[in-house]
Amino acid sequence: MTQSVSATSLQRNAIKFVKTNTQVPLTIAVKAINEQGQVVDKFVACERPLTVYLNWRPIVTLMTLGAKPESLTIGYLKNQGFISELSLLESVIVDWEVSSAAVITQEVSEDIEQKLSEKTVTSGCGQGTVYGGFLQGLDEIDLPTPSLKQSTIYALLGNINAYNETYKNAGAVHGCGICQDEQILAFVEDVGRHNAVDTLAGDMWLDQQSGHDKIFYTTGRLTSEMVIKVAKMGIPVLLSRSGVTQMGLDLAMQMGITLIARAKGRHFLVYHGSETIEFDATKD
Length: 284
Prior knowledge:
Blueprint: E1 7-12, E2 15-20, E3 27-33, E4 39-45, E5 48-54, E6 57-64, H1 69-79, E7 89-95, E8 100-105, H2 112-117, E9 120-122, E10 128-130, E11 148-149, H3 150-160, H4 165-170, E12 174-180, E13 183-190, H5 193-206, E14 215-218, H6 224-232, E15 237-240, H7 246-255, E16 258-264, E17 267-272, E18 277-278
Parallel strand pairs: 2-7, 5-8, 11-18, 14-15, 15-16
Antiparallel strand pairs: 1-2, 3-4, 5-6, 7-8, 9-10, 12-13, 12-14, 16-17
Helix pairs in contact: 1-5, 5-6, 6-7
């Protein structure tokens, strides 16, 4: 069931823009046959296209759950280098009737055609694409040196179990979270891990939140894209339930990100930044 656009005027850190309040279901009830040949009631995760427009020019079509499409759209455009000035952002309007998200900004991107022509197929869930502006500004990122305790990692991993609602209900999704010490400040699920991180990036940018004292958690693998996006958010610690790629590790080393992978229960592997961690629970 889709809902047509219903825009309301919002105020966010003195930046006024039009934002929709549309909502769509994240899961849907279905019938399945189990290994005993019995009919069982189950849920599956929804997946729907969302075409992103920048000043009415189509940029990309994202496949998403649709939980926070406005933040996803803003985060995607910022991470890809299509927008950079929050003060020039005028509106973001989502209309599920036509599966679109339109962003209007006064910012002029003179090299938009060049960016769109420089595409790289990535290791994103399914098949991802990054554009020419994705690598811009990396040399200007200066991340702080974190200080983290092993006991804090254990507590955080324990607390994260209270989230992943869509995954517990239907599976087939990734989850990402913004954390501070062992507390989860925000958590987003989507059909792809990059949608989830872009959504959180959009929220942080719109609210002008600092990432210097945060930890980024993801259920997905730590590829070069994930490391770059977290670095752009100013977050110095990246924690994953999954593994890490060689390029992801190389970038984490170059950018000074503490990289922790295969983290589940009381197990984790520190691939970079072990000196920033106090191993205070080795005998617990």
